[in-house]
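REQUEST FORM: STRUCTURE PREDICTION
Request ID: SP-0412
Submitted by: Lab K.M.
Chain count: 1
Length (residues): 575
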Amino acid sequence: MSISKNPLTNYFKKKNIVDNVEEVHEVEIQSNSIEETEALHIKRLKPNELTDSTINTTDDTNTASTISLTAASSILSSSNERDPCHGSTKAKDHILLGPFQPKTNFPTVNGRRFRSEWYTTYQWLEYSLALNRAFCFPCRLRNNCKYDGAFANTGFSHWKNGRARFNDHQAANYHKEAFEIWKTGLQNYNNNTDVLKLINQQHSKQANENRMYLKEIIRTIHLLTRQGISFISSYGSSWSPRKCGLKEQRHVIFEEIQEEAGLKALTIKQLSDTRWTCRWNCLKVVLTRYPQIISTLQVMEAPESHLLIHSMERFDFVFHLFIMSEIYLITNILSKYLQSSHICISQALNQVKMTVNALESLRNETEFERFYSTALQISEENEIDPPKELRKKKVPVRFGGGDKTLNALNIEDHYRINTYYAVLDTIITSIKTRFDENIIIDVLLMEKLFLTKTLLNENELKQLSKQYSLNYDDLRGEQRLYKAKLSTSTYQSQATLSEIRLFILENHLNACLPVMDELFKILWTIPVNTCTCERSFSTLRRIKTYLRSTTGEYRLSGLALLNIEREVEIDYGEI
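STATUS: Completed
RESULT:
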């Protein structure tokens, strides 16, 4: 009987409420649906199967529904990261949110359940939907398992003695310490005195300052590269006029003398072999600051300065200075106009003709007298000797003797014929030879064909067709169609190449007129000037100095690109 009685005894053995709850959670983890969990709890916790010592519960329906709600709540809320069942790690992640205090229909076990009114009395209290147990948020945050594992790790579920147990835990020193640390941390964060927050603010402040410094460095580098200036000086940080070279010392003394005279400080620019603009600027400074330049050379103690003074304190220098200043004043306008990238050959030739006419207008005695008298006046003001009569050359006695020239010129006629007229004739002849229309006649005919509304005659069309091996009849017919379409446009007497390019593309004339399209491609690829290419070489000459003798190709290309494209605006914030 003992053998057969043991199974029945074990079956009807009294079960503890805690064990029942633990079994419920084990079934929750293993089951796949709420219905299976409900069936298992009903089977294990039937009222007629409990012993007398067990606390009486409600009827079968209420018990089953309570356990079913507990299982459903556990499954639905187990995914909440703030739930105390996740331990102290998740508490640190949600320290600013505080205790997890859900307000819901708490499950009833043995007639007892958790009450939401306890949240108001105990601010540190939190509830786990997954475990149906109460926890202490500060102790769980600090992981006080060695003092009170129930409120920090496993949880508390004896609701009958809930208030007494909560009061005892609240009076414990370890709880007070954890609660004070938690409240102090929240207060520091709200008052912006939190250590991590202060470190973050300081990091942001330092990052903004570094960004400002970096932006200024980039702006300075961009300014230096646009001007073609070296990043470091050739004379170092301890600079003085006596430690620098002759060239730097000369400029410093020149500026000091101008300041003493109450004049605006001007500098003499370095001459360039390819740009006439710098020559005009240099001549203008020499002409307006001639006395100060002489004084600068007299102050300097160098052999070169004495040679320069000897050359400049002569009437020939002053007279040629006035002549070349007037010539460069006129040609400088032509030089700047030819540097434009939107001009055509015909427009450039018109500007050349205007320049030549202006130079030819200077070739008369009236203009010569003006230059000559001004040079004499400047010479007298600077105590320069006036021009002397030329020494007459004589024929040797063995060859008959006497003067070599019978009709000797006076000094004024000598400067007028042999200097003034000779200089003007040389410059005018050079400009005419450089821009000879006979050499570029084909380009002029193509510009007349495309840029104007005037028809080319038969001889001009034959010349173009012969020069570029085109069909004469096709060219003559396409010219008619092109001029008829161009006459309906809003262009005036002559358009630019850019406007004609857009006109051809918008009206699809490149496909309708193949011969004209081929001629336009030839015209488009013939450059009027080479200033854009020459600027690249001039830039490299200024950038590749002896201070950058070891500069690599990558860095040199970057410096040259910034200097050439100096007009392009750069957003330093994006960099």
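NOTES: Confidence is low (pLDDT under 50) at residues 1-79, 235-244.
Reviewed by: T.R.
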